[in-house]
Amino acid sequence: MNLQLPEGAKKRIGKGEIYQMQFSPDDTVLAVATSIGILIYDVDTHQEIALLTEHNDVVKSLAFSPDGQTLASGGGWKDKSTRLWDVQTRQLQKTLTGHDGEITSLAFHPNGESFASGSSDKTICLWNIDRGDIDKAERKTRIACADRVVDIAFSSDGKMLASGEKNQFDQSIHLRDAETGQGVETLISNVESMRETSVAFSPDGTTLAGSCNDTIHLWDIPTGEPRKTFTNPGRVVSIAFNPSSTLLASAGTQINLWDVATAEHKQTLWGSHDYVTFSSDGKRLASGGDFNGINIFDVSTGQHTKAIDGFNGCVICVSYSTDGKILTYVSYNGYNIWDTNTDNPLNTHLTYS
Fold this sequence. Notes:
- It contains 1 helix and 32 strands.
- By secondary structure, it is an all-beta fold.
- It has a domain at 17-117: 6 Propeller (Neuraminidase).
- The strands form 8 sheets. Strands 1-2-3-4 form a 4-stranded antiparallel beta sheet, with no helix packed on it.
């Protein structure tokens, strides 16, 4: 089944770029951040249902509230705003200002009553949300950071906020009190020549992982004490926990699986990709990267079970839906939806000019 777009939308996409995509928590909606606005798709019908164009610039970041009723979006350096949308009506509910640069990362608190925005202006803003009246949303605090914020994440209990920060020469990872933004714990700093920084909390909320160059660090939550360090053969671009928090996957020069408790290297998987994601049952791992399509692996055996190709360009994002039935991936010249039950595409990729 092909995902059909109106002719006008095809022309707009042909001039645009994709920056991020997010499934709603109930897997009914897929939001895609692009240079022409936010594309909203119905996951069941694979149809575009809206193009939200109120940002005055590219849209760089997205996050759904835990109940799936609100979508937050962050604009580029010309727009500098964070906007809140009603997912059901696709109406703009609130425009929030408080940053002086592009909004690089967004994350909702697990209780849905606040969210955080990270920016290239070296700040993180914490925002309060009245779920009964989104129009009352307001900034709670503005946190000064050492460098440009590239990634933020809340712990599953909502008590801690982690951030990855970078400048031209080095990068760092910080842990803060999620309520006040205070009590900064600098976990790593002044690491030179770091090409990428990635942070991720384990689903069980006990561990924070951060990658720097060829090294992966694990810290205990909430103490911030270092727990384990993995040395990866080559650069690490991204990391991901499995749903049970027992395994950590790292992607970059190699794709490796690590035992979280013991730091034991479990397996090296076939291929070299920059992005990895676990299925919701933890049985499959998907990877994507430079010009090698998508690879699917059996996590228990490490066996390469499926290669998805037929498109050109570097894959820049890969994600399973919450129920694991759909795999979505974005390349520089397309965006694709794959049915994991039938092993067939639900749409053909869109070609960008």
